[in-house]
UniProtKB/TrEMBL annotation:
Belongs to the DNA2/NAM7 helicase family. The keyword Nucleotide-binding applies. It comes from Dacryopinax primogenitus (strain DJM 731). Residues 1-11, 53-64, 73-82 have a biased composition (Polar residues). This is DNA replication ATP-dependent helicase/nuclease DNA2. It catalyses: ATP + H2O = ADP + phosphate + H(+). Residues 135-148 have a biased composition (Basic and acidic residues). InterPro entries: Coronavir_polyprotein_1ab, DNA2/NAM7-like_C, DNA2/NAM7_AAA_11, DNA_replication_fac_Dna2_N, P-loop_NTPase, PDDEXK-like_dom_sf, SF1_C_Upf1. Residues 950-1160 form the DNA2/NAM7 helicase-like C-terminal domain. It is found in: Nucleus. CDD domains: DNA2_N-like, SF1_C_Upf1. GO terms for molecular function: 4 iron, 4 sulfur cluster binding; 5'-3' DNA helicase activity; ATP binding; ATP hydrolysis activity; DNA binding; endonuclease activity; metal ion binding. Its main location: nucleus. Gene3D superfamilies: 2.40.30.270, 3.90.320.10, P-loop containing nucleotide triphosphate hydrolases.
């Protein structure tokens, strides 16, 4: 036995260790980094096998008469009896026996023993592994095949032997169809899928085999996996996950005396490497010519536009897809033998309705064509639709609808009986694939009966019915190989979705009336899955978090990453037209400095000569940091299919056991507007009542606005995707892209839709990071903004005009001197200006005035921020203006008072000119940075990324380099002097000032305190805590709960504090009762679970805003109540309470009164909080609640003890940003003695990341 193959053997050697068996102790970092000077090993090309196999399709029709029928895939080994073995003794039979078909010759000529029969020979296999030892490997394969005839193949040759006519067979090698052959539409029967984790792997020294010791996932059971032929080259390492599609042979066997064994070879079984990496078939199919292209496209979300004019091609494709799908679904299914043809009026109606929709007109705007030009082109490209419908839209097949097939004796007739679904988003973790299928259709196929020597069947036909994927292609069949490959892979996806055997798919080009049948044959599928495995391996290498963290721990000059991407194709003609060219060349320049062939030098220079060494290092470093963050964000993705709904619900990332119920009247408000994702609305509740289950939907990570995946439990994954519209303890309302009602599900293999149970998972597959990486790359393209690149990357100083066109007299008289100085700085800026506004200093008012000034100067303004709420806060402050504003983004997340600025509120544009007016004429455009509902970095978890610099904002980078570009706002008009003192003393070195005496003396005066007095009608309340806190002189106070049983508790891996929530709710209720408007009260917490808990307690006061610290930015309230949550005997704080920036945001939202509720003993574990308590003690601003204080008025204020449904207590402390390893003892209270005092830090180095 030898070790895992070196570079001369492995097709992934440039990415894996050179020798030795995999070891879990070595870690993934060892296979992703190397010390400079180590020998670099070249990775052989891997696309050959897929290219050669799929190219065989192009010649299949011309060779249909001589091509042999491949052996059936579904075969189960059976043991022959002793009599059968005696009868076969001495016979020489091989696979050609089963491939034999009647021919004019008297005796069929079969290949010699030991050679690969022509019917199954893979012409591209030898080329796909053209390593230095390729010839020896080929000889080893031939020897191996010869030896296998004496063991494994004999069992297969005897398959179905009990039904053979032995006397007839000895004289004539004619065998009936295999008993387990599956026909179209039959119940799905494939080899079982075993999910396992690799523990060790070795390669035999004789005939090449890879023997893998693996453990069945989530069990302790171990198996032996034997990989032969092409599969033996899989680059396996300890910890890798495999899905093996092959029978499991129980022990003892010839392979192992004690372990169950799975054998996978060229003729049986399939292996899916890294199955949790779900790749789209479109990505796999494009790897046939260049493996690098789909990987670059996936990294940068490159749009496959195909070079010049590509935007138009994408437009035609998108619109025609929708037209064909509408025609297929809008028409009633044919009920008779006559064709259900589409009329010209029907097609033209759908063409116009699609084209004149908002999406269609926007597409024309992007492509630079008029609607009339688009309509003319769409009519030309849809010229084949009428004839297509006449031939194939039938209830039964006829001779008019001849199907173009790969190999068939006689004609095959096709009838498209019914459309089962369109744009189905199918995820298949078993095959490691996911994709949108254009349409799934129910078909009837009529084929000639196979008569062999019996002339009585001549002319007779047989009809088969079933489901097929229907792929719509709007161009010419120039990329036939890729299109066929996609169609083959869609047969696997739909086979799982509908639980049917789908041996082939349909491919239709709209400019013709022909439909092509694409058979999903074993050799082709095997090559496609190998290509998919190769892409998954590269993808895993790019997201190898452990290796990239090591690269950050070590100086960048000492560590060099292994190959980041496969070698490029280096074909000037093909590369010059490739849509991923810019990204490919950028990564070649920055990550993979490969030699450039002479015929590629001009193209390489054209795309990368502008990138300096410093800029290349910048891109490589930040790309690495982005990938680290991406790895953390995606680490839960596999839970959607590897964890049960109940297990994931216990972690707070899923709602399990849900059912759909009719919408309520109040839900109808969500049905308004024009949306791309939210096309259906559904209301879900727990199948059992809340009182029976003792659960609430408020527990967990899922909140309003979060993206979700909806699946039928178990088995039907990701039937719909969308986001949360509303959430209450007993119900959740979702906006979805697909319907989930009974009518929409009737096509799926569900026995009883009425009893269907759903699971709603938080979607971990956000594209925000990919968009961030793409924006980073745009800065480095040759077509990018050179000036902006020099400012951001090279840190060139910004320039300012000496005499700006600026009239100070036009500014609002309410602005103070620092605000006017900041506006003047912006007016003079030619590149950028930085305004550092401390809390309450009028940043929002300053920005609103800057917008007015720039519009007066005739300039256009882009207003952007991380959150929808921050953008809307500024627009609300802008107020009614005499110029137009365009608010882009999801209308469900836009403030109700600002929806008038959205496109959905404007008249539907029916021409490009009208849309141009709507998009280009408004001088102010407002949107979020990443079009997501929360800050990308607000929930950052990866420490290595932070350490590498990912938490350094662009503001900080620029302000540190050029402080002369910064203007400070120091006069604040929000907080009274007591509240301002907290941040001023702890953070700002006393630089913050009250802007007026009125601001400094502000206090909260309640209109009517009689409700407070009414609480004591039953008797005096000695030292009532509510009276003390509502005193007008109490402006800033810390409420200490150490004498109460107010301990934090866990909800899954989230944290809450029920007694603190009750205290805050009681205080809010009495404030409202005493005349304070609910809209003037804000409740903050750093913990999302606490927010949900308090929201439930105050559900009768909807005007009170209850927010996390991150979402409170830009807001201020007369009274702010803060729940600190953490209270435990071990002093466990977690990471959130160590983030002084979030605490600073929370402390500075109040105008007149600030009440902070928490445990002094627990919170005193950090230096910042110790300084905070020292200050509060010095001022006498700490109020200690007496034992039982939380119960005194709880019943009167509507806050009784929480019901059991809202309690899930646990002694284990929780940390929202870190998962503590099992068995780790709780941390003791520890003061950060070596931390620098925040008061000693320079403002520009610290505060800007909280903006």
């Amino acid at each position: 036995m030898s070790a895992i193959p070196s570079s001369s053997q492995s097709h992934r050697s440039a990415h894996r260790p050179t020798s030795g068996p995999p070891s879990s102790s070595s870690g993934s970092a060892q296979r992703r980094t190397k010390v400079k000077g180590a020998k670099d090993k070249k990775r052989p090309a891997r696309a050959g096998a897929l290219r050669d196999v799929t190219n065989s399709h192009t010649n299949s029709l011309s060779h249909s008469q001589t091509r042999k029928k491949p052996r059936s895939e579904a075969q189960t080994p059976i043991c022959a009896s002793s009599e059968q073995e005696d009868a076969l003794e001495g016979m020489i039979l091989d696979e050609g026996f089963f491939d034999w078909r009647p021919s004019p010759e008297s005796t069929p000529l079969k290949p010699k023993l030991g050679r690969i029969p022509s019917g199954v020979k893979d012409e591209g296999r030898e080329n796909s592994f053209s390593t230095p030892g390729g010839r020896e490997m080929k000889q080893e394969k031939e020897v191996k095949l010869e030896e296998e005839k004496t063991d494994e193949d004999v069992k297969r040759l005897l398959e179905g032997a009990e039904h053979w006519d032995w006397g007839d067979m000895l004289s004539s090698p004619v065998k009936a169809e295999p008993l387990l052959k599956l026909e179209l539409g039959e119940k799905l029967f494939r080899d079982p899928c075993t999910r396992c984790v690799v523990e060790s792997s070795t390669v035999t020294s004789g005939k090449r085999e890879q023997h893998v010791q693996a453990r069945i996932d989530h069990t302790s059971s171990r198996i032996l996996l034997i990989l032969r032929d092409d599969w033996s080259f899989l680059p396996l390492h300890a910890g890798d996950t495999l899905n093996v599609h092959a029978p499991l042979l129980p022990p003892p066997s010839t392979h192992s005396p004690d372990l169950p064994t799975i054998v996978v070879s060229a003729s049986q079984g399939m292996v899916v490497h890294h199955p949790d990496v779900l790749l789209p078939p479109t990505m796999v199919s494009t790897a046939s010519q260049c493996t690098r292209k789909p990987l670059v496209s996936a990294l940068l979300r490159s749009s496959p536009q195909g070079g010049e004019g590509g935007a138009k091609v994408v437009l035609w494709g998108n619109l025609l897809h929708e037209v064909v799908q509408r025609c297929m679904t809008a028409s009633a299914p044919p009920t008779s033998g006559a064709a259900h043809a589409w009329t010209p009026d029907l097609i033209d109606h759908h063409l116009r309705s699609v084209l004149y929709s908002r999406t269609g007109v926007e597409g024309c705007f992007r492509a630079g064509v008029t609607v009339d030009e688009a309509l003319s082109e769409l009519r030309r490209r849809s010229s084949g639709l009428i004839e297509f419908s006449k031939r194939f839209m039938r209830a039964e097949p006829s001779s008019d609808g001849v199907l173009k097939v790969d190999a068939q004796e006689g004609e095959t007739w096709l009838a498209l009986r019914r459309t089962r679904g369109v744009e189905e988003d199918v995820w298949s973790p078993s095959w490691g694939l996911k994709g949108k299928v254009d349409a799934s259709v129910q078909v009837s196929l009529s084929t000639p009966k196979a008569g062999f020597f019996d002339s009585r069947t001549k002319g007779e036909r047989q009809v088969r019915k079933g489901t097929m994927p229907f792929e719509i292609k709007t161009g010419r069949p120039g990329r036939g190989v890729e299109h066929r490959a996609q169609t083959m892979l869609y047969t696997l996806l739909l086979g799982e979705r509908y639980e049917e055997e789908i041996p082939s798919g349909l491919l239709y080009y709209t400019q013709s009336a022909e439909v092509i049948q694409v058979s999903a044959k074993r050799n082709e599928l095997r090559a496609l899955l190998m290509a998919r495995n190769d892409l998954a391996e590269w993808t895993m290498g790019q997201n190898d978090g452990e290796a990239r963290e090591q690269a950050i721990e070590v100086e960048l000059g000492d560590v060099e990453e292994m190959a980041f991407l496969p070698e490029p194709l280096d074909d000037p003609w093909s590369c010059g037209k490739c849509y991923a060219l810019d990204g490919c060349m950028l990564y070649r320049r920055t990550h993979d400095p490969l030699p450039v062939p002479s015929d590629m030098e001009d193209l390489f220079v054209q795309k990368t000569s502008h990138i300096s060494s410093r800029q290349a290092t910048f891109f490589r470093t930040w790309e690495r940091l982005v990938s680290l963050e991406e790895n953390d964000m995606n680490r839960f993705r596999a839970e959607l299919w590897t964890m049960t709904a109940q297990a994931r619900e216990s972690a707070g990332r899923c709602f399990a056991d849900m059912v759909v119920i009719p919408l309520r009247e109040e839900d109808k408000r969500f049905l308004e507007g024009d949306r791309k994702i939210h096309t259906h609305t559904a209301r879900f509740v727990k199948r059992a009542t809340i009182t029976q289950r003792g659960e609430t939907l408020l527990n967990g990570h899922i909140s309003v606005g979060d993206p979700v995946v909806v699946s039928a439990d178990p088995g039907l994954l990701a039937l719909a995707r969308g986001f949360v519209l509303s959430l209450s303890p007993d119900a959740v309302v979702l906006g979805l892209d697909h319907a989930v009602d009974e009518e929409a599900l009737k096509e799926l293999p569900i026995k009883d839709v009425a009893d269907l149970v759903w699971r709603i998972d938080k979607d971990e597959l956000s594209t925000g990071i990919s968009r961030l990486r793409d924006n980073l790359a745009q800065l480095f393209y040759a077509s990018g903004d050179e000036r902006r690149r020099s400012l951001v990357v090279d840190l060139d100083p910004p320039t300012f005009a000496s005499n700006p066109a600026f009239d100070p007299s036009e500014l609002s008289s309410a602005l103070n001197a620092p605000q006017r100085t900041a506006i003047a700085k912006v007016a003079a800026a030619k590149d950028y200006a930085l305004i550092l506004g401390m809390p309450g200093t009028g940043k929002t008012s300053t920005i609103a005035e800057i917008i007015r000034m720039l519009v007066r100067q005739g300039k256009s303004v882009l207003l952007t921020s991380y959150t929808h709420s921050a953008v809307d806060t500024i627009l609300l402050r802008l107020g009614e203006v005499d110029f137009d504003v365009l608010r882009l983004g999801n209308t469900d997340k836009v403030h109700p008072d600002l929806k008038k600025y959205t496109l959905a509120a404007r008249p539907q544009a029916t021409t490009v000119q009208q849309l141009e007016n709507q998009l280009l004429l408004p001088p102010v455009v407002a949107t979020t940075c990443l079009s997501i509902d929360h800050p990308l970095f607000a929930r950052r978890k990866n420490r290595a990324a932070r350490k590498g610099g990912l938490d350094v904002s662009l503001f900080r980078r620029l302000s540190d380099a050029h402080p002369e570009a910064v203007v400070d706002l120091t006069l604040q008009y929000r907080m009274n002097e007591d509240i301002m003192l907290l941040s001023n003393r702890l953070i700002y070195n006393d630089r913050l000032q009250c802007g007026s005496e009125e601001t400094a003396r502000r206090s909260l005066v309640l209109k009517d305190k009689s409700p407070l007095a009414a609480l004591h009608t039953g008797g005096p309340c000695d030292g009532c805590w509510l009276e003390a806190l509502l005193d007008e002189r109490c402006k800033a106070v810390f409420v200490d709960t150490d004498l109460l049983p107010a301990r934090d508790s866990r909800v899954g891996d989230l944290v809450q504090n029920e007694i603190e929530a009750s205290i805050v709710a009681q205080l809010a209720n009495v404030l409202i009762a005493c005349g304070l408007r609910p809209m003037d009260i804000g409740i903050l917490s750093l913990y999302r679970q606490q927010i949900k808990l308090i929201s439930h307690l105050l559900r009768s006061a909807p005007g009170v805003e209850i927010l996390t610290a991150d979402r409170s930015q830009g807001r201020d309230k007369e009274c702010i109540l803060i729940s600190m949550v953490r209270s435990n005997e071990t002093g466990e704080l977690g990471e959130l309470l160590k983030d002084w920036r979030r605490l600073n945001v929370s402390f500075t939202r109040a105008r007149s009164k600030l009440v902070i509720v928490g445990s002094r003993n627990t919170l005193g574990g950090t230096l910042l909080m110790r300084e905070f308590f020292d200050l509060m003690t010095e001022k006498g601003w700490i109020y200690a609640l007496k034992p039982g204080a939380h119960l005194l008025h709880a019943e009167q204020l509507g806050c009784p003890s929480l019901p059991p449904m809202l309690k899930r207590l646990s002694e284990e402390p929780e940390n929202e940003n870190e998962e503590r390893k099992s068995g780790t003892p709780p941390k003791k209270v520890k003061v950060e003695a070596h931390s620098l005092s925040p008061a000693k830090r320079a403002i520009l180095s610290d505060i800007i990341n909280a903006l």
